[in-house]
Amino acid sequence: MSQIRVNNLSFYYEGSFDYIFENVSFSIDTNWKLGFIGRNGKGKTTFLNLLLGKYSYEGVIDAHTAFDYFPYQITEDQMLLSAAEFIEDLKPLCETWRVIRELSDLEESAEILYRPYNTLSPGERTKILLAVLFSGENDFLLIDEPTNHLDQTARDCVKTYLASKKGFLLVSHDRDLLDACIDHVLVLNRRTIEVQSGNFSSWWENKQKKDQFAITENEKHRREI
Questions:
Q1: How far apart are CA 124 and CA 113, in angstroms?
Q2: What SS3 string covers the chain?
Q3: Contact assessment for residue 89 and residue 122, using Cβ atoms and an 8 Å cutoff
Q4: I need a surface site. Which of 26, 78, 93, 181 has the fewest CB within 10 A?
Q5: Which residue pairs, CB below 8 angstroms and at least 24 apart, start in 28-31?
Q6: How far apart (Å, rounded) are the C-alpha atoms in residues 9 and 159?
Q7: What's phi and psi for 136, nearest 5 deg?
Q8: Nearest alpha-carbon partner for 59 in 18, 26, 35
Q9: What is the pLDDT of residues 18-65, one digit of tens each?
Q10: 10 Å Cβ neighbour count for 57?
């Protein structure tokens, strides 16, 4: 268990006059099950890429942990192979027996590791990539929309699986998934990020109360004016 500390983080894309983040500071625990929620657009993916070291930024991201990201990018050549032939390319030192163990937790047979990847269903592909992701130790995992393109049975399986895990940051528009899997939320505001305990529903309830309070206060001030 360790902390990821973000201090005075500022970032904007070259050629843009608008900051994506401006003087953002917060800390999170690598043992938490975090949901990343907030406005649509490039903010959430941008922050994941900052954690992965893909962009330069102002400020400090202090993390004594390695990061890994879902979904892995599968090449055209790999699509023609079985996953067993390239999983170590996705995650160095990945051990097949660990992947098989995770597949069992995902209610999936190890047999899918040995079929051509391009013959697998979206659910089978997702389960393999999640199994590879969670086959390591001590990584903090960045999980981006794991239930996209899945049928309800596969979504339920992924939901149950992630609910049993910890040490991840989950980006998803699936509110049911977030409610089932997370114990903290990372909230993306216009230029800031804040941390709250609870799941999606508790955050949403608090947000609605704050929004209603702001509306009431604005109306009161309008009448006074």
A1: 9
A2: CCEEEEEEEEECCCCCCCCCEEEEEEEEECCCEEEEEECCCCHHHHHHHHHCCCCCCEEEEEECCCEEEECCCCCHHHHCCEHHHCHHHHCCCCCHHHHHHHHHHCCCCHHHHHCEHHHCCHHHHHHHHHHHHCCCCCCEEEEECCCCCCCHHHHHHHHHHHHCCCCEEEECCCHHHHHHHCCEEEEECCCCEEEEECCHHHHHHHHHHHHHHHHHHHHHHHHHC
A3: no
A4: 93
A5: 28/3, 28/4, 28/169, 28/184, 28/186, 28/195, 29/1, 29/2, 29/3, 29/4, 30/1, 30/2, 30/3, 30/4, 30/65, 30/140, 30/167, 31/1, 31/166, 31/167
A6: 32
A7: -85, -175
A8: 26
A9: 888 999 999 999 999 999 988 777 789 999 999 999 999 999 999 999
A10: 19
Tokens 């170590």 belong to residue:
88
Per-residue pLDDT at 215 exceeds 80: no
User: In percent, how much of the chain has pLDDT > 70?
Assistant: 95
Q: What pLDDT does 144 receive? A: 94
Which one-letter amino acid corresponds to residue 111?
A: E
What pTM, to 2 d.p., does this model score? Answer: 0.88
Structure tokens at 125: 């592909």
| Mean pLDDT along residues 84-101 | 96
Phi/psi for 59 (5° steps) reads 100, -160
Is the peptide bond between 92 and the residue preceding it cis, with omega within 30 degrees of 0?
no
> How long a stretch of residues is the chain?
225
Average pLDDT over residues 97-109: 97
Tell me which amino acid residue 134 is. Answer: F
